Amino acid sequence: MAGLFVDDRPVAGYARVAVEQGVDVAGEGLTYAVPAGMDGVAVGARVSVPLGRGNKPASGYVVGLRSVGDGPGEGLKPTRVKAVLSVDRDGLALPTELIELARWVAGYYACPLGMVFASVLPGGVKRGAGLAKQKWVTLETEAGDGVRMTKQVKAVLEVLATEREMELKALLAAAGVRSAGPVERLAQAGVVSIETRVDLRAGLDVAAERVAARLSERPTPSADQAAAIDRIGGALDAFGVHLLRGVTGSGKTEVYLRLIERLLNETDRGAIVLVPEIALTPQTVGRFVARLDHAGEGGAPGGVAVLHSGLTPAQRHAQWQRVRRGEARVVVGARSAVFAPMQRVGLIVVDEEHESSYKQDQLPRYHARDVAIKRGQMAGAAVVLGSATPSLESWHHAKSGRYELVELPHRVPGLNVPRVEVVDLVEERRAQRGIHLISQRLEHELRTTLDRGRQSLVLLNRRGFASWVACPDHRCGWQMACDRCDAMMVFHLRGGGTTNEDGREVPRGYVRCHHCEAQRMLEQHCPVCGKRTTLFGLGTQRVETELAKKLPGARVERMDRDTMTRPGDYERVLGRFEAGEIDVLLGTQMIAKGLDFPGVRLVGVISADTAIHLPDFRAAERTFQLVSQVAGRAGRGSEPGVVIVQSFDPTVDAIARAVAGDYVGFAEAELATRDEAGLPPVRRMARVVLRDKDQAACHRRAAATADLLGDAIAAESAGQRVTLRGPMACAMAKLADHHREQVMLLADDAGTLQRVLTAARNRGRLVSDTHTAIDIDPVALL
Ligand code: ADP
Ligand code: ZN
Ligand code: ZN
Question: Does pTM surpass 0.70?
Fold first, then answer.
């Protein structure tokens, strides 16, 4: 093939490049020629390539190579292939293992490779966001005659005399000096030097120093913990999945910490710790940083990097770089940290592995827990899935022996199991006239807790004031629905106010759709019969109003998506709660997860029923998890805790078992139900949702997809092992003006499901686009 040229240079080979912007919909990357003499084009290298008609330079990663002799690939004319422009040498190359992982994600989750890369790389890295800079001051010589010894100059020199070298702001603070003037004068006299350095630790400054002391304690493991550490720790040098089921308060985090310490001390490998985004509070981060970020001092070597959405793009970039350069051997982060550019991963921890937020709800629709397992397999690393309420998926695998089950059945020494009580709201209705969201029992315990100077958490997993607005005359039956969605409008208070109209209290506010966020005025009168409309159902605002009436003087704070609007809000409120400045913290599931506050005596669940009737086969599982998790926040101090669960239907299995703390009983019964119905985790599911503003077009697309999948099943002779369902309307048949239909595949195993999907792709068009969402192993089915 000699004589082949590109841009007047001989061609040395071909590279497939996944472009970061994710424009490549071909799937496997775009092909470019590698000009002779261009070094460093290897798998994982970051390169610049011409893109589109205008040949605009774009960055991307090499995902595959071919020799000149093999040609550029099927359907490509060697003379038409463009050339790689340059190789990036700034150290941004990706470990080959990560390239392989991205390719697996693209294949398994049916997503173009370029889009996977868009997820793999934080925005700050893609755009090359400027790294944060810091000024560092170094003491060079003794101060001579050239400097006037003011009080401020003396203070600065005194600090430097012991520290030698310090970051400018920290130096000024330590010296009690306001402006940098004195330091600059010292620099002019040559006494100190000032140097600008890239601040790779930006974003690590854990504000929670107040709590750091408690967080950095290194408790002696209990017998249960020690056994778990031994079992998993003995298997750190090979791939294996360990399901750590530990009741809330059993000290799972301590097990993770000890395992990581062991890994850092005994090997040269690193650890990735995934936590749900919402649990990435200064509490969690502080605990890992305080214990593991020793950067050179005694103890385990290796820094900690943090990756989450609360960081600025520049901070994320800095953190990512520390991992890439091997300066941090521990990464703590949310979902996308499973793609951290670590070279040698030895351990991956997925905390609260049952959390549905590990699944990304847009392209690529990956599940971070499952990607973590794949990465562990590729890297030969141990994977630890931790939870008090494991997903049925993980429980199923543990039972079948694919995962090793390790249990922490007791709370850590000194922590009592909270007493859990149920209040039947049907009986309560009879006992107490009027509408009360807070039962007499809960009210009593709230008061007792307040009197003892302790704290309460109150959960209601629904925002707003009232969940629907309707005509009080049920013969009329009018309800206020969203024009654009198949959903009821939710009433929200504005300014917390009520007005008096004809002697009665009327809440002032507006209505909003929780699916498309459309907002409207409240209809005061039924448009059909003219009667005054009534507010039905409950929401956190209504509970807040009632708490204010029932507990006057208590410091109540509400935490839901409506009050947590600015970055840092969540952390600020939790900081105040920790400091004892809030008596009652009321909120949605945000308050249910991972929090460890010793001041909490009481947990109240306003309604355990909010999710139980959702049209999703995981409704019972979600209910069980939510009630168990929030109950686990009680009694983490020296005194015992109390949990009160209110429900209209406390005999429902998920609620009764959560109250009894019977995970195994629940999981077994639920698995049997799923097995009978042929649902995950016993079978594997893929779902394709078709959406279109035009209902007929939506249906045509859905029918075509069903045909395509049906043909693929036939072609693979998989009819025995794969079931096709649909086309049918989604549970939410209309969303934001789009009609929605779905087609589902249920297969006996993942391999068969993948074969059918691949066959379908080879037979016709099956890609995710604006009309089509392909979701493998879906977790939400609305
Ligand atoms: P989980 O994640 O299992 O709910 P945590 O890891 O949050 O539990 O631990 C609960 C609390 O117990 C934390 O405050 C932790 O510092 C403390 N703790 C953990 N292990 C021990 C131990 N062996 N002895 C005493 N306290 C412990
Ligand atoms: Zn809507
Ligand atoms: Zn009416």
Answer: yes
